[in-house]
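Write out the bound-state structure for zinc ion.
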Amino acid sequence: MRDIREGICPLCAHQEIVEAVPAEFGDGNMELQNGVAVTYAPRWIMGGRNPSHPKGLIRLWFCRSCGYSQQFVLEPGEVPIDAEHRTALHRGRGAGQDNPDRRRLRTTHATLYLGDAGIDQDWPNGAVHSVRWERPFSIAMHRSPATFGPTADVHVQLKQSQANALAIVAFTLCVTDSPEVQRLAPLTTFLPRLEGEEARLVLRLLHQAARLHNIQMPL
Ligand SMILES: [Zn+2]
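---
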């Protein structure tokens, strides 16, 4: 999943993210300075935890469009783990060692995020690839041999060289069938598929970006 702190909503791809300090109140409804934390230092004499010594402050990030939120702990490695702080550590079974009899299978398919600045894709292996419209990229299109009727599936692959990597974003657009679509080379592949208004929007942005860099569009 994308980290909301990058400024893009993981749910709706909106690009206005608000950071907030969730409030905590003490005696007389006075707001505590640091907000909510995951734990507090133990008191010396009275027992319990001391609200004026927080450990692991919590910050809330939310999308300004859909309201989706994520919370993050500041300096997470500094939070003490013990009974006095009422914290406990749970390690994943595979932590620190390879576990040959358990293989993680990804069932979710590469998610796409489309924006005015470019198109991003979270690949199932955890990699995030971004193609920015402001820089040149290459585009390849193939048609799916398994389409019948008034629409056709077109596989699109965008590549862009970056400082130390090659970004690859690939998806399938369901478009109106045409002689141009029929002229594309056939290819069987399984990619995230967009149709209707979303497919038209992607195609429109692709045409805009291609014009910017004099890139020949197959469609
Ligand atoms: Zn959102």
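---
The CA atoms of residues 40 and 54 lie 4 Å apart.
The first strand starts at residue 17 and ends at 20.
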